[in-house]
Amino acid sequence: MGGASEEEPRIGVFVCHCGINIGGIVNVPEVVEYAKTIPGVFHAEANLFTCSSDGLSKIKDAIGEYSLNRVVVASCTPRTHEPLFRATCEEAGINKYLFEMANIRDQCSWVHMHEPEKATEKAKDLVRMAVAKALLLKPQEEPEIEVEPSALIIGGGIAGMTAALSLAEQGFKVHIVEKEPEVGGMLRQLYKLFPTEMDASVILSRATDAIKSNGNIEVLTSTIVRDVKGFIGSFDVTIQKEERNTETLRVGTIIVATGAINLEPKGMYGYDEYGNVITQLRLEHLLKAGELRKMGTVVMIQCVGSREERGRTYCSRVCCSEAVKNALMIKEIHPDADVYILHRDLQTYGKEYESLEWRAREKGIKLIRYIPEKPPEVTSKQDGKLAVRVYQVLLGKETKIESDLVVLSTPLIQHEDAKRLSSILKVPLGQDGFFMEAHVKLRPVDFATDGIYVCGTAHGPKNVGESISQALGAASRAAIPMAQRRLRTAAITAEVDENKCVGCGICVELCPYNAIQKDEKGIARVTSAVCKGCGVCGASCPETAITMHNFTNEQLEAQGLAALRRAAI
Amino acid sequence: MTEFEPRIIGFLCNWCSYAGADLAGVSRIQYPPNIHVIRVMCSGRVDPPLILSLLAEGVDGILITGCHIGDCHYISGNLQAKRKFALTKRLAEKAGLEPGRLRLEWISASEGQRFAQLVKEFADQVRALGPSLLSGNKLDPGLLLNMRAAKAAAEDSRLRALVGKEEKLVSEGNVYGEPFTQEDFDKVMAEAVDSEYARHRIRLALLEEPMSVKKLSERLGMDSRRVLGHIVAMRLRGWVDIQEIRGSSPIYRALEVL
Q1: What is the residue-level pLDDT of chain B in tens, covering all 258 positions?
Q2: Continuous H helices in A92-187
Q3: CA angle at residue A195 from A189 to A196, to 5 degrees?
Q4: Of A79, A122, A535, the CB nearest to B22
Q5: Contacts for A6 with CB less than 8 Å, ≥ 6 apart
Q6: How many beta carbons lie within 10 A of that of residue B22, not counting itself?
Q7: Closest-CA residue to A119 (of A131, A107, A130)
Q8: Smallest CA–CA separation between B182 and chain A, in Å?
Q9: Fewer CB within 10 Å, N side or C side of chain B?
Q10: How does DSSP assign A444-470, residue by residue?
């Protein structure tokens, strides 16, 4: 592989017009001419679209023609295009870590559209900063590891069972760990599912039968995950069944499908005081058991404990459709009942659920909008009925509804145990308490930690259909490394200089991934397959013994100095 | 004369803040071109000496941004960023630099608007402070030495070890299992910053020219008993020794190698 660090750096700079996105504001030819004057730059050219196949072949041609050994592309953001350009460098025989990007579109031409001259000057600065870093880049080799073709699925709800089946059918061994004595999760508490009104038990028994009869699936109920060590390809998972002895499983990948629970609305709308104030989940149970007695009026209140200004700010996504579905079911059993849904703005989204809302309107279900500044009030009357007062925005006055039953639509919330799991697995929870994916659009079912994936309501409120789709997504992501059996992990990792390390152990404590351990001599060692390259250890080492590859102090300082035009270059 | 335009460097974490800055671009939200962004994987990676060094080189302002607390891609890296930033700021202030040149904020991937607003605000804030006294052709020599001392103190193992231990100390207590509050820690830290900064400043002064304790205390505007105390500690560390005895007072010199 070319581009050894000892060679004199020969940098090629490719400045992208991005059609008119950059070229319409930044004077690209001027930036190219400027780039040619930067020491270390042996070739600079403009491209209409550097990322087009034409642009990429021009990079490859120039690498050959000018014997370039490092490449800088000034275009869009490395967050989307770095992998493509790196691959191009690799194809032309340059180590892919000898590549650097200058973001002159998203962070320059697009945000300084009315100041073309200043934008051009800034583009030059950004190119100079990228060249300054490129001069100090070193080739990196990506460690290759083996992958155990088996998966652990934490949580045996519909998401976990779906992911398990998908993987098992692809030939991988799967262990499902479920903390309850039975699999099924939230589905066991539900009755009919919107929008098809299919019985939850039908889906449930189909899934449970399938996992139980699949030879590749081992179901471990009343079992919890105690500890996880290792990394993608070989996780050592310690599990414990009913407080008894622990056992260790070796798996290649892990899927988190721990689900969610329903918020108990303590202290809200008289829930703790009046027996006839219940949650939607309780209503599902009454409907399922056929225990809903005949009644005159039912009032449902939406967004109870969700979409708050502080705290649970999120929308729980499923409650609007659930309320409309349950309202329709009440009307079916008791056609004379008056059913009200008090909502902030009914969110029966998507192609099927909107029609559900229209059906509700046709059946005479009354939808009343309230505003969070003046939420409804529920009080008890002497005859045991409830008085619901709601301020109607459109009428500009308060309406009083006498009700036999008040049903509160409360959000799905994270399990208390999630924090423990988050720290065992070294995967983050977001501000709302749900597990957080690596990237909302680019990596929606991956965690930042390689080899661990998320699906279902553990990741946020979802209906059954959405949970199943996401579970299939997580399963296919997990299948990729297991099918390949070997993989390369990122080379942006930390390295300890053993001559400088004094064994203080601060890096060991601070590493969020347990990637650093002390060896028998008391010297810190980084397991590069586990290291995610955050660099906290390097910034914390009292002896400055840790180098954070590809983001070294020297490289960052050179970039900073180049921004000040005070650098040696 | 054209209005002063500050040169600002932004250290943005790859996962939240850099994505937030990209979003400002995708949404075409305009902000002033003063900021030059350096991408880092995590805000917790931003090492205090790096910031102090760029300030010593004359950058007008530095903005560090990371994921919101609780949303860190690396679980807790931003907590480290916060602790490291506190040290950086303490040392910069010790050196006599305006604290308004430094800012740490949390920007999520969805906060393009907030990022643009922040850059605008910070640029205004730094513009109001005027050019760094360490930029341009006429540098403030005293401030430069002070900043170098601050940087050296941030590279030294004592302060680094303290910051590295801070999270654990404050959340779990000390090695004897006794509680250790943030207040307790801040007290220890303030004292450590004070003495480490002073020692590095003394060392830089002695590198320029060997001096007596009396002269050092005049030069640095520091109480002579404190200077003597630091000299004793520095001799033990092998940073200084006595060059000669002039009259009745020893003249100290700095040893090159730390």
Answers
A1: 468 999 999 999 998 899 999 999 999 999 999 999 999 999 999 999 999 999 999 999 999 999 998 888 888 899 999 999 999 999 999 999 999 999 999 999 889 999 999 999 999 999 999 999 999 878 899 999 999 999 999 999 999 999 999 988 998 888 888 888 999 999 999 999 999 999 999 999 999 999 999 999 999 999 999 999 999 999 999 999 999 999 989 999 999 766
A2: 116-136, 158-169
A3: 85
A4: A79
A5: none
A6: 26
A7: A107
A8: 18
A9: N
A10: TTB-SSTTEEE-GGGGS---HHHHHHH
**Residue A41: is its pLDDT beyond 90?**
yes
**Using CA of residue A35, residue A39, residue A44, residue A49, what is the dihedral sign?**
negative
Cα–Cα nearest to A32, from A21, A19, A20, A48: A48
Considering only CB atoms, A107 lies closest to which of B22, B57, B72, namely B22
Q: What is the ipTM of this complex?
A: 0.95
Distance of CA B18 to the CA centre of its chain: 22
Contact A559, A133 (CB under 8 A): yes
Q: Reduce the DSSP state of residue B18 to 3 states and report it.
A: helix
Q: Which residue of B has its CA nearest to A561?
A: B54
The residue written with tokens 């643009």 in the block is B116
Q: Please, are residues B18 and B37 in contact by the beta-carbon 8 Å criterion?
A: yes
Asked if the Cβ–Cβ distance from B22 to A509 is below 8 Å, we say: no
Taking phi first (over 0 means left), then psi (-120 to 50 degrees means alpha), and beta for anything else, what does residue A535 get?
A: left
| Cβ proximity of A167 and A151 under 8 Å | yes
- What is the DSSP secondary structure assignment for residue A187, as one 8-state letter? G
Q: What is the 3-state secondary structure (H, E, C) of A416-431?
A: CCHHHHHHHHCCCECC
C-alpha A84/C-alpha A95 separation (Å) is 13
Rounded to whole angstroms, the Cα distance separating B216 from A257 reads: 66
Task: Specify whether the CB–CB gap between A449 and A104 falls below 8 A.
Answer: no
CA distance A414 to A258: 9
Model-level pTM greater than 0.95? Answer: no
Contact at CB, A428 and B75, closer than 8 angstroms: yes
Å from A256 to nearest chain B CA? 17
Q: Residue A327's pLDDT is what?
A: 97
CB-defined contacts A:B, below 8 A: 172
Judging contacts by C-beta atoms under 8 Å, the chain B residues touching residue A534 are 41-42, 44-45, 73-74, 77
Compare all CA atoms of chain A with the CA of B9 and give the residue at the minimum distance.
Answer: A560
CB contacts of B25 in chain A (<8 Å) are 77, 105-107, 110-111
Nearest CA in chain B to A510: B164
* Nearby residues of B207 by Cβ (< 8 Å), 6 or more positions away: B254, B256
Nearest to A129 among B36, B53, B165 (CB): B36
The radius of gyration of chain B from alpha carbons, rounded to an integer in Å, stands at 21
Q: What is the DSSP pairing of strand B8-13 with strand B61-66?
A: parallel
